[in-house]
Amino acid sequence: MLYQFVDSTCKFAEQKWNLRDFIETVGEVELRNDEQHVFQLTSYEGSTGFQFSCSNMETMRTWIQNINISLSTSNSTPDAVPCSLTISSEWILFAHEGANCAIDGFMRLLKKIDISKITNVTSVHTESVNVIVIEHQSNSTDWIVVRTLSELRRLETTFNIKCGLPVTDSVDEMHFGRDKSNILYKQCAKMHDFWRNAPVSD
């Protein structure tokens, strides 16, 4: 994601863009004025884009390299992001603590989910991984990974009671072995153990 913040505190974003959906190319550009070390992001339509001026050549090349990696890396298995989770009767909010959260209480909103757009909620747990899988009307999913099975059970209860969303336990006697449950279970079995920072063995 590319964010445009209102000021240097980077607390409030005016706009945001998903680079994979919007940007096709990134590269260095030469301007007719005296400005140097400028690179440009060009949209798929080619009619719009962004230009950024850097303080030196090394910084510019670092930006270009990182953006190219972001554009070319498959998003089929996105990285996990540590965050706080808040659930109301209408929304699920994911937030990341600011650098001085203990002092100023600032948390940056990462994502919000409209509960009315959720079509299914499934819980999956292996020996080392505990996950809630949220399915949306758009056929996309969000995965919430928690540390322990007891945390998973509390989250299931919250979805049930507070949100009115029934949660399917993919490994109970009724659902274990079905196609969908098998797919989710196998995906979880291949996930990293985020709490120990090591792959979970097959």
Radius of gyration: 21 Å
H/E element sequence: EEHEEEHEEHEEEEHEHEE
Major sheet attributes = 4 strands, mixed
Spatial strand order of the main sheet: 11-10-9-12
Task: Bin the helical content.
Answer: 10-25%
CATH architecture tag of the largest domain: Roll
Notable traits:
single chain, 202 residues, alpha+beta, PH-domain like, four-stranded mixed sheet, three-stranded antiparallel sheet, PH_domain
Describe the fold and architecture:
- One of its GO terms (biological process) is Golgi organization.
- This is PH domain-containing protein.
- GO terms for molecular function: kinesin binding.
- Residues 1-72 form the PH domain.
- The chain is an alpha+beta fold and 202 residues long.
- It contains 5 helices and 14 strands.
- The chain has helices at 19-22, 57-72, 101-104, 149-161, 179-189; strands at 2-5, 13-17, 23-29, 38-43, 49-53, 84-87, 91-97, 107-114, 118-125, 130-136, 141-146, 167-169, 192-193, 198-199.
- Strands 11-10-9-12 form a 4-stranded mixed beta sheet, sandwiched between helices. A 3-stranded antiparallel beta sheet has the order 3-4-5.
- A hairpin with a 7-residue loop joins β1 (2-5) and β2 (13-17).
